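Usage

Read records sequentially. Each one opens with the input sequence:
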Amino acid sequence: MLGGLLGFCAEQNNAHPTGGDGMLRFYVEVARTAFRRQLIYRGFDVRDTLRYTWLVQAMVMIVMTFGWYDLMLTIRSGAVISDLSKPCDFYWYWFSREFGRNIYYLIYRGLPTYVAGMLLFSFGAPGDWRNWLAFLLSLTLGASVGIAYRVLYNAVAFWFLEARAIGLLFVVIALFFTGSYVPIPFFPRWALAIIQWLPFNALINAPAQILLGKIPENALLFELGRQMLWVIIMTLIIRIVIAAAARRVVVQGG
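and closes with the structure output:
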């Protein structure tokens, strides 16, 4: 099974080097293989695998907007001076803008994508309303971490005039560790022990596992607390970086 899946993944990566469609096919192939052999791997049967697949596709643009270089472009053009001079907090200005964008993607991309998966594969939706409430809270925390992450790699442009390549590297790393390429529950156990403590786990994998009911109730508060911890850590890092960047702008006479 593993050899066939890896071969299929390589084939799809060559056919679709940009990711999206090829990785969706890879996820579906995982589910199809599990269905044919009636496999249950680490608590995931075919229904769970399909749900996880479509949840990842539904959430990826909510928490990790592709090609987002808005802040970077204002730095290159010099318009960031105006933003730094506004009578409001610089980070919360960008946070509120991006959070609004996340709500848009939730309504116009996330929900239609998951509903499409339900109609195509008849895997239904998790029925426990408590899971849905915890999922919405987890998704909000994940989106907050995602915004901080995007602002962080855009802020690199304060030090590097052309930083889009660095931004792309940040995005690729995040997509890998969020489970957009390979489902996180299918990683080796030693890797899972590390990934669960990375900020990327808070973006997609944690909300998805909560909605699927894969996180026990006695561990749910711990998982949400871990997401909140990364929101706090990323926010502090952003504030340190922005403060250093603002001093750099002033020194350069901006």
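Summary fields computed downstream for this record:
- The first helix runs from residue 2 to 15.
- The CA atoms of residues 199 and 210 lie 16 Å apart.
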